[in-house]
Write a structure and sequence with these properties.
With about 1050 residues, the protein is α+β, with helices and mostly antiparallel strands. It has 38 helices and 13 strands. The strands form four sheets. A six-stranded mixed β-sheet has the order 6-7-13-12-9-10, with no helix packed on it. The protein has a three-stranded antiparallel β-sheet with strand order 5-8-11, with no helix packed on it. Strands 1-2 form a two-stranded parallel ribbon.
Length: about 1050
Amino acid sequence: MKTTRDFDIPPQKYIHALTQDLQLHKDSKKFLEALENIPVLLDTYPLSSYVDPTFILIGEVFLKTADNSIRSRILKIVKKSCHHFEAISDFSKVKEGVYHILFSTDDVAKILTANYLALFSQFMEQDEFVVDIIKQYVHSTDISIAKYAFEAMKHYASYYPIYAANQIRFLIESYYEYPSERVTVFFIEQLLDVCSTFSIGVVDIDIAFKTLANDVYLKTKPDIVVYVLKFLAKLSVESLNRREFVIARILTFVHKTVNRMERLALIQLLGYFVDTLFFWPENLVRDVISITNDFVHEAKVDYKEEIGELTKYLSSLRAQNISSIKTICNFIMDTSAKSKYITDSDLLFVYRNVIDNYAPEDIKDVVQLEKLFILFKNDTLDSKILFAAMRSYLSKNITIPLYVDVYDFCKKEVMNEKRTDRVGLYLKVIRAILDLEHTFSSKIESLIDMLFEKEIGIQTRVFYELVYHRTVSKTVDCNLWIKSIPSFDHSLLFEIAMICLINGHWQTAALPLFSYLSKSVTSVNSKIWFRSIICLCQSQITTWNVQNIENSIENQEMAVGTLHEVASVSQNTRNMRVIHEFLTIRTGLFSKIMNAILVLDNSDAKINDQFKSQTDYQKFLFEEFQFEIVELNELIKMVSLILYQSLDADSETHMQMFFLSVQINLLKTLLSYLIGENKVDYTDVLKEREEDYIKVQNEEAHQFSLKDIQSYDKMPSKQYDKTLSNDFDLMPPTRKSDLPSKTDSRLWDHAILEGSTTGQFNEATECVYSTSDAMDIDILNTVNSFQFYYNKQYHSRTKKGANNADFKALDRIQFTTVDWNLIQGMEKKYKEHDGRPDYSGSLLHADLYVKYIGDLNWTKLCHILQTLKTFSPKNLNEMLKQKALIMEGMLIAFKDYRVIIPFIAYSTSETKVNLYIHPKEEVNDSREEYLFIKGGMPIFVESILKFKGDKFKFECIIIEIQHFEGLQLKELHKKEIIQVKADYIKMPFLLNIANDGHIKVILSCIESQSKIRYLLEEKTFTYKVEVNVFY
């Protein structure tokens, strides 16, 4: 049975196919392949209507087969699929078939069955018969049978506290009985392993801990001390009072034991305390160093493995004080010359651990820049670890003199380095400096010329990340080097072109590269895709005049139109749809810029003839710009809706979308300063826009994809001329089965225009749709120490130039999550930057503006906005000065505006939502319609939350059901699930069915960190009412 990603196979066909595959009389090879394929099937079809019959069929095979090896294989398969247990509706059906095997005379079959039933312990009551079988077979002389018994015991003890407490008493009794015929070393090892998984909150584990700890201290049972210490270590990891005692006991036995295998096992127990938040006291650190030193100076025995493990723990543990870290560093430096098993790599790991976990001022005597330089000159060390250590050191110590020293060192070394990997290392460090401090861009330009001249690093990706860095204003024309280096692989050229596009080097770099690469492809989709990128690269505003802006708009519109061509030849994907919508919004912004310039330029000729006063001029501007402001507000809504659907987008995509909305809001604010205090009602304009808005809303949303385009870097160089990808190795190739069906109305098919409403966040962080009054946001006073994100408190707008009536129809901008590490890392720098005005609350915008328009432009824009806030024109001449300031602000903000289309690194979402109606009859096999009975109809909404790559934490999951009869909303149900832990959700609802209609299910979440509500899935189900026929 083949698997697909969408629910295009109805349950009846699924069950029939699976039944045929699991017939025992069939070919054994095909049968076993079908059996092994079950976990994949369940992951593909995770909903109850598929999961229920699958486990029932598995149980039937488990019962009917006489081969215990097949039962053992089924047991492993069920363990792999345990995350689907919550979708099982009736566990009695799972139990009733296999339960008869417990009365068999076959011992293996009985214990396998007991283990099988124990897997479902969370959803069944404790079965005393199964408990008796477990107790009987844990003492079996057959080790395989005993292992199955202990596994069943572990499952039972995980969910039955009384049973777990009984096992603690059983452990103590068995420990004192050891050694005996019934209680062997294997028995004690397995029983200790089971009891070590118990939670102290469930059973009183202290009894066993104290008993065994005292006995270890007395050394009464040395042959099982390793197993006992492992038990104590697992229990003490989360206990502050026990850790030091257990570590001390472990180190004592490590020092005294003569059995090497036992010694290694004991050393590995220290790993339980290294990867946690435990801070080691100085006495324990010195004990570890002392033992390691003894092994180093032992001449008769080779302690390579022991030294390696202990050194690894020394370089990774967290010490309570800096003196312990100094002791570790001194020990490694002293012994590295005496032992071949301790090297500079261990010192490098210590430095990286210290830099990541301690404040810079605390470790200034331990980690010094000169020491890092010495390590950098060691060619035997791992370049990745060196770079990670230096990058952490630079980010923790934000000082210009330090950056200058590191830059000079890397510049000197890279000029003399011959190895490509080492050249890449030094260039990566320079790029990290440029990321942290953009003022180094002037130094980088001279370095780039030197590197090109000597052809150093020109075959590496990081070189071009530096050459075409976003902060480097001087763009190197790619025609100067592409023809002189014929050995370039097309995959590298493709990566360089993407770097140029992402960092805003369009005209002289990205455009020629994409034009060159477009001649190498043959597929239709690839040519279309390259055509859209080439159009985009030609859309940058290079000169501030109407003709240039108009050319930019035309090129963007051509790129949007080209994406329509892509949609005509390929399937729909979310990535292409978002790119199309983003470009559409961006084109709308540029159109508004051009219209504003035309109005302001043309008004100059009318000033003496038509505009005799400031009031006349303001009224004219108000009539021209009120419509523009409302449309700008709608563009912000469109960005907000894209963000609402982009929980799993990467931080760069979030920042690009957020900055686009900030730019739209900036233009809106600049235009609003010109409107003044005219009390003109928006009613007629809003009514006109309402009609257009509803008309656009009812139109079908276009979808776009790029199914068959693959990235250059995934192909052999000889196949570069076939296809390209918009995913750029960020997403796996899209298959047709990944795509939504045409009838599904879910997240990726969500219309960009959602009624005439805008999404806002209320105090409970719930996204509510409202048409109520809202006011604009000021660019310089929106966020105060990021309070908006955490507290969701709206700030009143400073009323400059326009009153509340003017802004009655303008909705608030909606914010989304951004790269917090990047933004918070810049906060200190911007506060302490010399010569920069201290604009409270503008740090978030500052980082984005510096990133996308440059530091110099942002500083100028800040001064202009600050002046406009306090500027209050009293006559026409002063207003013309205000207009000049606004024109200058537009020039600065938008001339070098190079925000690209978001090449989104979405985590491949496999979130599903479905109705589970039992009992139910389906109208047809496509599952598009259901047949309901009039009256109260119980239904379940079930969902599987699944994201590849990232793990999201949700504060709550919201399930909303909208029940329609025709076009009329009849019922609205909403339930919230707090503290979501499982990936599977099932929630009951009761609907009142009277006539034919449809049910719209909306699954959304509130993400834990940002407290923002995101849409996860949306789907519509159509139903018909059963008609009773009487004869």
